[in-house]
From TrEMBL, chain A:
The keyword Methyltransferase does not apply. It comes from Kingdonia uniflora. This is DNA polymerase. Residues 142-375 form the DNA-directed DNA polymerase family B exonuclease domain. It catalyses: DNA(n) + a 2'-deoxyribonucleoside 5'-triphosphate = DNA(n+1) + diphosphate. It comes from the Eukaryota. Residues 439-872 form the DNA-directed DNA polymerase family B multifunctional domain. InterPro entries: DNA-dir_DNA_pol_B, DNA-dir_DNA_pol_B_CS, DNA-dir_DNA_pol_B_exonuc, DNA-dir_DNA_pol_B_multi_dom, DNA/RNA_pol_sf, DNA_pol_B_thumb, DNA_pol_palm_dom_sf, DNA_pol_type-B. Its EC number is 2.7.7.7. Keywords: 4Fe-4S, DNA replication, DNA-binding, DNA-directed DNA polymerase, Exonuclease, Hydrolase, Iron, Iron-sulfur, Metal-binding, Nuclease, Nucleotidyltransferase, Nucleus, Transferase, Zinc, Zinc-finger.
UniProtKB/TrEMBL annotation, chain B:
Belongs to the DNA polymerase delta/II small subunit family. Keywords: DNA replication, DNA-directed DNA polymerase, Nucleotidyltransferase, Nucleus, Transferase. GO terms for biological process: DNA strand elongation involved in DNA replication; mitotic DNA replication. It comes from Kingdonia uniflora. The lineage of its organism: Eukaryota, Viridiplantae, Streptophyta, Embryophyta, Tracheophyta. It is found in: Nucleus. Residues 37-164 form the DNA polymerase delta subunit OB-fold domain. It catalyses: DNA(n) + a 2'-deoxyribonucleoside 5'-triphosphate = DNA(n+1) + diphosphate. The function of the small subunit is not yet clear. This is DNA polymerase delta small subunit. Heterodimer with subunits of 125 kDa and 50 kDa.
Length: 999, 441
C-alpha cells in the first residue's frame, strides 16, 4: 500500500498561550480568574454555542526570552482554549503512506492545513479576542498568543515540514465515517504521533503526486478574460510521480469536440458545466498532493472557481481533500521586506499544496521578464510559442482540428511548469527548506522569511523553557537603519589582479561571536543595576550591552551554530553522495541552511516581523562595518614594502562582506597566494567564528562606483572562470536589448580581449548602425506591464498611452490589463511628449515609421555606456557619443503618414532613385551601363533575405512542433518574433523589386 | 548548327540534337510572398506522396490497415504514412545566434550535425509520433522525407517500426534507341574570380569543347558533344561588397571583372554549341531553391547567341528524348550535413528512391514557400541525374525495379580538379575530361 494518501484526524490538541502570572496570584485564585475571564469572553463574543471558551488555566514556571535575566524563571499562566464543538476535534491533516500496514504507519507529512476555514477563523479570533481582553482590558502581557495554530501543533509534536510520521499500530483506528477523499482515513491522539527526523532512510521524499495544469478561456475581443463572462474552454492536466521524469497521466478536457492527440486522453464535452465537473472529479480521483502551474494561484484556480460560481455550479469547488469543504477565493495581500507588497488571490485547497511556479520564480530569481515564455527560454533553453488570446476564441470557434491545435498549446503550457520544477529542483529545495525551518511547505510560498525564523525560535525556546512575548505589530514602518556602508570605491580600471577577501557568513558569525540574542541583551537599567563585570559583557559599537556566553548562551547563536553545522555536514555528505536523487536532497538542504542562517539577522531587524529587536540588528551591522574597516587597516599596514613585500597593498573597495585588495603584483598566482596569506592572518585577529576567506581574484577589474563593477573572475591561476558583473545594466527591465548587448559586448572586449580600442570601435559602429537605421528592431523594443487602464495612471506613461491608441485601432489585439506592452520610441513632431512617441513595433515595421534614434542614444545607451567607459577613456562622452560616426543619419520614409498617403506611388530607378516614367524598367537610362553591378546588388540582397526568411520560419516550425500547421505564435518575448515578421515583409518587397528586372 | 572546327582537310561536322527544357516547374516568376508559410509545401508534399505510397501499400502489406497517426491503437499493427521529422541535438538554432549569452569560447561549427541521440518522429496532419526500433535508422533519413511505415504503437506511446516503404524510383520513359554517340558535357565550379581558379584551365576546357585543341581523334570526340551544362558556381564574387552602402569605383570593377571574364568564356562555347548555365551558391543569383536563372544582363556577350540558355537550379531537360535532372549540389551537400552515407552517390540514390530531390528543403535547405505544389518531387525518372560542385568525380548506374536505368554523376569542382564529365546519351556511359596546365595534353 505504498503511496496511498492518508488523512489522519488528530485528536486532543488544544490551542493555548501564556500570560505573566499577575503578581500576588496564587493557585487558589485561578478558578476565580478563570470565571472572570470566561464571563468577559461571553460578553464580547455574543456566544456561539460553545459551552466554554476557556478550558483550563495552569500555572507554570517559564521565562521570557526578552533580555538577560538573572533569576531562572517566573510564574506564568498557560491558558488553554476550548475548541468549537461544531468542528469535532482539532485536526491536523497529513498524508502518509503505509509501508507495512500491520507494524507501523509511515507517512509523509507534507502539509498541515486548517481542518476547515471556519475552524481556523474561529480559533484565531478566539485567541485574538482573549489576548485583546487581557492586554488592553487587564493590562497583562501575553506570550505566544499569535502563533499560528498549525505551527503551534507542529512545534509541540516535534513535526517539521516534509516529515515522516509514524503512528504505531494499535494507536489508531480507521475512521468510520470518513470526511476526506484520501485513500485511508484514521483517528489518533496527538500524543501518539512519532515524528522521524529527516535523516538516513527518513530523508527520502515521499512519492508525491504532482498535478500540473493549465486552463484556456475564450476571452472577448479586447478584454482580458473575466470569469463572469468568458467560458473556460480547455483544461490540460499532467500528473507525475515525484522523482520520475515522465507524467503518468496526460489529459485534456475540452469544450466541444477536439480531434485526438497522440498519447493524450482527450475528453470533450458539450457544456462548460461538464468540463468543470469533469475536472473536479478528476482531481478527486487522482488525488494530487501538489498542484503546480504557471500563475495558477492568481489566475487559473480563482478563475475556475469564479467561473463555476457564475454558472451556478454549487458543488464545483470541492477540490481539496475534505468532503464538503468548499474552496473559495480570498483576496490577500502579502507583504514582506524582501519581496515587497503584492496583491494576490488565495484559493484554499485543503490538503493539497499549491506551488505556483510564477511565484517561485519571482521569489528566487531575478529576471527581466517572468512570462512563461522567457522563463522557459532562460532555464530550459527553448522558446515557447505564444498564441494571442484574440486567436484563442477563433480557434475555439473553428472545428475540432483548430480546437486540437489549441489543446496542444494548452498541454504544452501545462508541461513547461512541470519541467521547470524538475530542472530547478524546486521540490527538493522547498522540502528541505521546510525540514530545516520546520514550517509547512505551503508557508514557504505564501509567507515571508520571518515565519521560518519564528518557527525555529519557538522550537528552540520551547526546549529552553522560554516564552516569546507577543508584540503588537507596529504597522509597516520601515525599519531601515543605517545599513552596511561600504568603503569608498576607488573607481577605475585595474589591469593588475585584485584579490577579494570575503567574510564567510559574516552576519551569522558576528551574532555567534558576540553572543547577540534577545536573551543576552541587557536593558540599560539593568546595566546600571546589575553591575556586571566588564569581562562578562560585550559592548557593541552602537553602545548596546550583551552578556557573554558564560553567563547566558544566546538562543539565536545556538540556532545559527546548528544551522551552519548542519550545512557543513550536508556539504560533506554531498561530496560523498553518488545517487543523483540523494545529491539533490543534500544540495537543497545546504542551500536551505545557508538561506536560513542569513535570514536570522533580517528577522531581528524587520519591524513587520513578530519579534523585532533593533538593538541586535544594528549591533550586527555596526560590527560588520568595523570588521571591514579593520580588514582594510590590517591589510594596508602589513602588506607594505616596509613589511618586506614587493608592493604596498591598497584596498580599493569594500562591500557588505568583502574587501577588494590590490596587492600590486601582476600575476594572478601571486595575488592568490598573498590573498590567502592575508585572509589567514586577518582571520586570526577576529573572534571565532568570524573568518575571512580568500576565494577569488578579479583580473582585470573595472570598478565603476560602489556596487557596480565588472571583472574576470579567477579561482585558479590557469584560466578564468567567468565574467562577473554587478549592478551593470544587463538585466534591467526597462532597457531595450540593444543596451544589454552593447554593454555585454563592450565588457567582453575590454575584459576578456583586453582590447579597449576594439570596444570603442564597436560602440561607434553600433551607434552608427543605429543612426543609419540599420538596427534590428527587436533590439529596440522596450517592454512594460500594463497594470491599470487609461485613467488608472496618474502620470501618462508611454506603454499605457500606446495601449489606448492600439485599442482604438483594433480592440481585439490591443494589450489588456495583465499583458506586457512592447513598444519602440518613434520620431514625432517637435514638442511631442515623450509618452506620445511610443508605438507598436509591428505597426512600425509595417509602415516604415522612423525610429527616434536620438532617444535611444540619449536615454538608453549613453548613461550605461559612459559609466563603463569613463574610468578608462578620457573624454568618453565626446569620443563615443559625438564623434564622426554620428554624422551620417538616415531616416525612413513612412509609408502611410500624412502626405505620403496620397502621393502616387512612383517607381524610381534602382540605381539612383530618380523617378522613371517608364514603369516597366528597373533603371533610368543613366544607370543602364551599371546594370550588371546593380543587379548583383539587388539579387544579393534577395539572397540574404531568403536565407534569413528560411532560417526564421523553419525555427518557428520547430518550436511549435509541427511541420504541417501554420505558425500562429505572437510571442513578443521571443528574439526572433519581430525578425520573422520583418523578414516576411522585406522578402515580399525585395522579390517585387527583383521582378522588375525582367528577362 | 554546323561549325567549322578545323581548317584541316576533313571538315568535321558537329552532331545535332533535339533539346527541350523542362524547367517550367522550377520557375517562381508568378509566385508572390503574401505571408504564406512553409506548412503549405509540406502539406502539398505529403498529399502527393501519400497518393503514391497508398497505391503501393496494397501490394506491399495487403493485409494491414492504413491509419493516421491519431488512429493508432496500442499494439495493433498497421501502416502509417507521414512526413519524417528528425529531432537533432546538434542542429544549429537561429535562436542561439540571437539570445545566447556571449561566451568566451567561439562556437565551433561541425560539418555534420549527427548525434547518437537523434531520433525520428513521424508527422501527419493529425499529429506526431516518436519512432522506435532498430529498423529505421535516424542516420539514413532526414526531416522532410515522406514514407510509409509498418509497425505498431507501444505502451510507451512510441511507434515501433517493423518495415519501411519509400516511394521508390519514379516511372521512366524508355531510353530512345540511337546508334550514334552523342555527348553532353557537364562542368561545375568554374569559380572565375576565385583566387585559386586558373584562367588557363578554363580556357583549355573551352578550347577542347569547341574543338580547337588536340589531334583528330580528340576533335572527333569534340564534334560529338552536343550540349554543355554548367552546373553552378561559375563565378566567385568577393564577399562583403554588398553590405556597405556605397561601392567605390574600384569595387565596381572588382565586382564586374569575374563576370566579364565568364561572359567571354561562355561566348566562345555558345558560339560553338548549345550551352545551359545553372546558378549555384556562389553565383549572383537568389539563395533559395529553386534558384532562378542568372540574369542575361550579366552576360551581354553570350546573350546574343540563341544557343545560350540561362536556366534554373534544379534544372531538368531532354536531349534527344533522354531526360536529365540535376542541381548545383546544394541538396546533396545538405543531406551530407544532416545524414550519413558512404558516398555522395548513395545520397543521390536515396533521393531517387524517395522520389524527391530535396527533402531537407525547407527545413535546412532554403527554398521558396510554395503554396500548392512541391517542384522537388520527381514525377518522372531521369536517365541522367547529376549534381555539381562535389569534391570528386564519381558515377554509378542505378537500375530500378521496373527496369529504370539512371546514371548518377557527381560533377567535381572544376577549379579544383580540372575535371569535366561527358555523358554519352546513346548508352549513358560517362567519362571524365581532365585538364591540367602542368602537363602537356
Ligand atoms: S516566434 Fe517562433 S521561435 Fe519564437 S516562440 Fe514563437 S514560434 Fe517559437
Amino acid at each position: 500500500m505504498v503511496g496511498h494518501s492518508v488523512c489522519c484526524n488528530v485528536h486532543g490538541f488544544r490551542p493555548y498561550f501564556y500570560i505573566n502570572c499577575p503578581p500576588g496570584m496564587g493557585p487558589d485564585d485561578i478558578s476565580k480568574f478563570h470565571q472572570t475571564l470566561e464571563a468577559k469572553m461571553r460578553e464580547k463574543s455574543a456566544n456561539n454555542g460553545s459551552p466554554k471558551c476557556i478550558l483550563q488555566i495552569e500555572m507554570m514556571q517559564k521565562r521570557s526570552i526578552m533580555y538577560y535575566q538573572q533569576q531562572q524563571s517566573q510564574m506564568f499562566l498557560k491558558i488553554v482554549v476550548a475548541l468549537p464543538t461544531m468542528v469535532s476535534g482539532c485536526r491536523g491533516r497529513f498524508f502518509e503512506a503505509f509501508k507495512r500496514e500491520d507494524v507501523r504507519l509511515e507517512g509523509r507529512f507534507n502539509n498541515l492545513q486548517y481542518s476547515s476555514f471556519l475552524f481556523a477563523f474561529y480559533c484565531s479570533s478566539l485567541l485574538c479576542l482573549l489576548a485583546g481582553i487581557l492586554e488592553e482590558g487587564m493590562q497583562i502581557g501575553t506570550y505566544e498568543s499569535n502563533v499560528l495554530f498549525p505551527l503551534r501543533f507542529m512545534i509541540d509534536c516535534n513535526i517539521v515540514g516534509g516529515n515522516w510520521i509514524e503512528i504505531p499500530s494499535g494507536n489508531y483506528r480507521r475512521t468510520a465515517k470518513t470526511m476526506s477523499y484520501c485513500q485511508l482515513e484514521i483517528d489518533c491522539l496527538y500524543s501518539d504521533l512519532v515524528s522521524h527526523e529527516p535523516e538516513g532512510e527518513f530523508s527520502k521524499m515521499a512519492p508525491f503526486r504532482v498535478l500540473s495544469f493549465d486552463i484556456e478561456c475564450a476571452g472577448r475581443k479586447g478584454f482580458f478574460p473575466d470569469a463572469k463572462h468568458d467560458p473556460v474552454i480547455q483544461v490540460a492536466n499532467l500528473v507525475t510521480l515525484q522523482g520520475e521524469n515522465q507524467p503518468f497521466v496526460r489529459n485534456i478536457m475540452t469544450l466541444k469536440s477536439c480531434s485526438p492527440i497522440v498519447g493524450v486522453d482527450v475528453m470533450s464535452f458539450d457544456t462548460e458545466r461538464e468540463v468543470l465537473l469533469a475536472w473536479r472529479d478528476f482531481i478527486q480521483e487522482v488525488d494530487p498532493d501538489i498542484i503546480i502551474g504557471y500563475n495558477i494561484c492568481n489566475f487559473d484556480l480563482p478563475y475556475l472557481i469564479e467561473r463555476a460560481q457564475a454558472l451556478g455550479i454549487a458543488d464545483f469547488p470541492i477540490i481539496g481533500r475534505i468532503r464538503n469543504s468548499m474552496s473559495r477565493v480570498k483576496d490577500a495581500t502579502f507583504s514582506s521586506r524582501q519581496y515587497g507588497t503584492r496583491e494576490s488571490k488565495e484559493v484554499s485547497t485543503v490538503g493539497r499544496v499549491q506551488f505556483d511556479l510564477l511565484q517561485a520564480m519571482q521569489r528566487d530569481y531575478k529576471l527581466s521578464s517572468y512570462s512563461l515564455n522567457s522563463v522557459s527560454a532562460h532555464f530550459l533553453g527553448e522558446q515557447k510559442e505564444d498564441v494571442h488570446h484574440s486567436i484563442i476564441s477563433d480557434l475555439q470557434n473553428g472545428n475540432s482540428e483548430t480546437r486540437r491545435r489549441l489543446a496542444v498549446y494548452c498541454l504544452k503550457d501545462a508541461y513547461l511548469p512541470q519541467r521547470l520544477m524538475e530542472k530547478l529542483m524546486f521540490i527538493y529545495n522547498y522540502v528541505e527548506m521546510a525540514r530545516v525551518t520546520g514550517v509547512p511547505i505551503s508557508f514557504l510560498l505564501s509567507r515571508g522569511q520571518s515565519i521560518k525564523v519564528l518557527s525555529q525560535l519557538l522550537r528552540k525556546a520551547k526546549q529552553k523553557n522560554l516564552v516569546l512575548p507577543s508584540v503588537k505589530r507596529k504597522g509597516s514602518g520601515d525599519g531601515t537603519f543605517e545599513g552596511a556602508t561600504v568603503l569608498e570605491a576607488r573607481t577605475g580600471f585595474y589591469a593588475k589582479p585584485i584579490a577579494t577577501l570575503d567574510f564567510a557568513s559574516l552576519y551569522p558569525s558576528i551574532m555567534m561571536a558576540y553572543n547577540l540574542c534577545y536573551c543576552t541583551l541587557v536593558t540599560p537599567e539593568d546595566v546600571r543595576k546589575l553591575n556586571l563585570p566588564p569581562e562578562c559583557v560585550n559592548k557593541t559599537p552602537t553602545g548596546e550591552t550583551f552578556v557573554k556566553s558564560n553567563l547566558q548562551k544566546g538562543i539565536l547563536p545556538e540556532i545559527l551554530e546548528e544551522l551552519l553545522g548542519a550545512r557543513k555536514r550536508a556539504k560533506a555528505d554531498l561530496k560523498k553522495a553518488k545517487d543523483p536523487l540523494v545529491k539533490a536532497v543534500l544540495d537543497g538542504r545546504q542551500l536551505a541552511l545557508k538561506i536560513s542562517a542569513n535570514s536570522v539577522y533580517g528577522f531581528t531587524g524587520a519591524t513587520v516581523a513578530q519579534l523585532p529587536c533593533l538593538e541586535i540588528s544594528s549591533s550586527v551591522t555596526s560590527y560588520g562595518r568595523q570588521m571591514i574597516e579593520d580588514t582594510k587597516k590590517h591589510v594596508e599596514k602589513k602588506f607594505t614594502t616596509d613589511g618586506g613585500y614587493e608592493h604596498n597593498a591598497e584596498v580599493i573597495y569594500g562591500d557588505t562582506d568583502s574587501v577588494m585588495v590590490q596587492f600590486g603584483v601582476s600575476s594572478v598566482d601571486a595575488a592568490m597566494s598573498l590573498g590567502r596569506e592575508a585572509a589567514e592572518y586577518i582571520s586570526g585577529t577576529f573572534i571565532k567564528p568570524i573568518k575571512l576567506e580568500f576565494e577569488k581574484v578579479y583580473y582585470p577589474y573595472l570598478l565603476i562606483s560602489k556596487k557596480r563593477y565588472a571583472g574576470l573572475y579567477w579561482t585558479n591561476p590557469e584560466k578564468f572562470d567567468k565574467m562577473d558583473t554587478k549592478g551593470i545594466e544587463t538585466v534591467r527591465r526597462d532597457n531595450c536589448l540593444l543596451v544589454k548587448n552593447l554593454i555585454t559586448e563592450c565588457l567582453h572586449k575590454i575584459l576578456i580581449d583586453q582590447d579597449i580600442p576594439g570596444a570603442v570601435q564597436f560602440v561607434k559602429n553600433t551607434i552608427s548602425d543605429l543612426l543609419m537605421n540599420r538596427m534590428d528592431l527587436s533590439l529596440l523594443v522596450i517592454t512594460k506591464g500594463l497594470t491599470k487602464t487609461g485613467e488608472g495612471y496618474a502620470v501618462k506613461q508611454a506603454h499605457n498611452e500606446l495601449a489606448e491608441r492600439m485599442r482604438k485601432r483594433d480592440a481585439a489585439t490591443a494589450p489588456t490589463i495583465g499583458d506586457r506592452v512592447p513598444y519602440v520610441i518613434i520620431k514625432a513632431a517637435k514638442g511631442a511628449k515623450a509618452y506620445e512617441k511610443s508605438e507598436d513595433p509591428i505597426y512600425v515595421l509595417e509602415n516604415n515609421i522612423p525610429i527616434d534614434v536620438q532617444y535611444y542614444l540619449e536615454n538608453q545607451i549613453s548613461k550605461p555606456l559612459l559609466r563603463i567607459f569613463e574610468p578608462i577613456l578620457k573624454n568618453a562622452s565626446t569620443e563615443l557619443l559625438h564623434g564622426n560616426h554620428t554624422r551620417s543619419v538616415s531616416i525612413l520614409t513612412p509609408s502611410n503618414t500624412g502626405i505620403m498617403k496620397f502621393a502616387k506611388k512612383q517607381l524610381s530607378c534602382i540605381g539612383c532613385r530618380t523617378v522613371i516614367s517608364n514603369g516597366e524598367q528597373a533603371l533610368c537610362p543613366h544607370c543602364k551601363g551599371r546594370e550588371a553591378e546593380l543587379y548583383c546588388k539587388s539579387v544579393a540582397n534577395v539572397a540574404d533575405l531568403e536565407m534569413l526568411f528560411g532560417k526564421l520560419w523553419t525555427q518557428c516550425q520547430e518550436c511549435q512542433g509541427s511541420l504541417h500547421q501554420d505558425v500562429l505564435c505572437t510571442s513578443r518575448d521571443c528574439p526572433i518574433f519581430y525578425r520573422r515578421k520583418k523578414a516576411q515583409k522585406d522578402m515580399a518587397e525585395a522579390k517585387l523589386q527583383l521582378d522588375r528586372w525582367q528577362f | 548548327m554546323a561549325m567549322e572546327i578545323d581548317d584541316s582537310s576533313n571538315n568535321l561536322q558537329r552532331k545535332q540534337s533535339l533539346y527541350k527544357s523542362l524547367d517550367e516547374t522550377f520557375g517562381v516568376e508568378r509566385e508572390r510572398y503574401t505571408g504564406q508559410q512553409y506548412s503549405q509545401i509540406y502539406f502539398a508534399r505529403l498529399h502527393l506522396m501519400r497518393t503514391i505510397l497508398y497505391s503501393l501499400v496494397d501490394t506491399w502489406k495487403p493485409h494491414l490497415p492504413v491509419c493516421t497517426v491519431l488512429g493508432l491503437e496500442l499494439g495493433k499493427e498497421c501502416v502509417i504514412v507521414g512526413t519524417l521529422y528528425k529531432h537533432m541535438k546538434l542542429k544549429p538554432c537561429v535562436l542561439d545566434e540571437y539570445s545566447k549569452e556571449r561566451t568566451g569560447i567561439p562556437l565551433v561549427r561541425p560539418h555534420n550535425f549527427m548525434h547518437p541521440e537523434d531520433h525520428l518522429v513521424l508527422e501527419d496532419e493529425s499529429g506526431r509520433v516518436k519512432l522506435g526500433g532498430t529498423v529505421i535508422s535516424p542516420s539514413l533519413f532526414v526531416t522532410g522525407n515522406v514514407v510509409a511505415l509498418h509497425g505498431k504503437e507501444t505502451s510507451a506511446g512510441d511507434f515501433l517500426v517493423q518495415d519501411i516503404l519509400e516511394a521508390g524510383l519514379p516511372p521512366q520513359e524508355e531510353l530512345p534507341f540511337d546508334t550514334k554517340d552523342k555527348y553532353v558535357v557537364f562542368v561545375s565550379g568554374l569559380s572565375v574570380g576565385c583566387s585559386s581558379s586558373n584562367p588557363l584551365l578554363s580556357q583549355l576546357l573551352v578550347d577542347h569543347i569547341t574543338g580547337h585543341l588536340g589531334d583528330e581523334k580528340e576533335q572527333i570526340l569534340a564534334s560529338q558533344i552536343v550540349h554543355v551544362v554548367i552546373a553552378g558556381n561559375s563565378v566567385e564574387l568577393p564577399t562583403g561588397l554588398f553590405n556597405g552602402q556605397y561601392l567605390a569605383a574600384k569595387d565596381h570593377s572588382k565586382l564586374s571583372m569575374p563576370i566579364k571574364e565568364l561572359d567571354i568564356l561562355l561566348t566562345q562555347i555558345a558560339a560553338a554549341l548549345p550551352l545551359d548555365i545553372m546558378p549555384g551558391t556562389s553565383d549572383p543569383a537568389n539563395f533559395a531553391l529553386p534558384q532562378q536563372p542568372l540574369h542575361r544582363c550579366l552576360f551581354p556577350g553570350t546573350s546574343a547567341y540563341n544557343t545560350f540558355v540561362s536556366c534554373t537550379n534544379p534544372h531538368s531537360f531532354e536531349v534527344d528524348s533522354v531526360r536529365f535532372l540535376g542541381t548545383s549540389g546544394q541538396n546533396i551537400d545538405d543531406l551530407d550535413r544532416y545524414s550519413n552515407a558512404e558516398s555522395r552517390l548513395d545520397f543521390m540514390e536515396r533521393t531517387l528512391r524517395w522520389r524527391h530531390i530535396a527533402p531537407t528543403a525547407p527545413n535546412t535547405l532554403g527554398c521558396y514557400p510554395f503554396t500548392d505544389r512541391d517542384p522537388f518531387l520527381m514525377e518522372k525518372c531521369p536517365h541522367v541525374y547529376f549534381v555539381g560542385n562535389q569534391s570528386k568525380y564519381e558515377n554509378r548506374l542505378v537500375k530500378g525495379p521496373e527496369g529504370q536505368l539512371v546514371r548518377l554523376i557527381c560533377i567535381p569542382k572544376f577549379c579544383e580538379s580540372g575535371v569535366a564529365v561527358a555523358v554519352n546519351i546513346r548508352n549513358l556511359e560517362c567519362h571524365a575530361l581532365s585538364f591540367s596546365t602542368d602537363l602537356d595534353l
